[in-house]
Design goal:
There is one protein chain. The chain is built from two helices and four strands, in the order βαβββα. A four-stranded mixed beta sheet has the order 2-1-3-4, covered by helices on one side.
Length: 69
């Protein structure tokens, strides 16, 4: 599984930490752009295997990512 996080998103560090602590085998990268310009700054957002996931909060996004395992 590949998880890409937007460098400009305020939740990136928290979500990356949550995933790394519980699933160190998941490939996480922080990208300058994940292709959702102007939508990626506020809500927790990630690109997982080419699918964009948007959570209500960081826990919601984390759960969405983990459910893809």
């Amino acid at each position: 599984m590949k998880v890409k996080l937007c460098k400009k998103n305020k939740w990136t560090d928290a979500i990356a930490t949550m995933i790394t602590e519980t699933h160190p085998d998941i490939n996480i990268s922080t990208k300058k752009c994940i292709g959702k310009c102007h939508k990626c700054k506020e809500p927790p957002i990630a690109k997982v295997d080419k699918e964009i996931l948007v959570g209500k909060d960081k826990k919601d996004l984390y759960d969405m990512i983990i459910s893809k395992l």
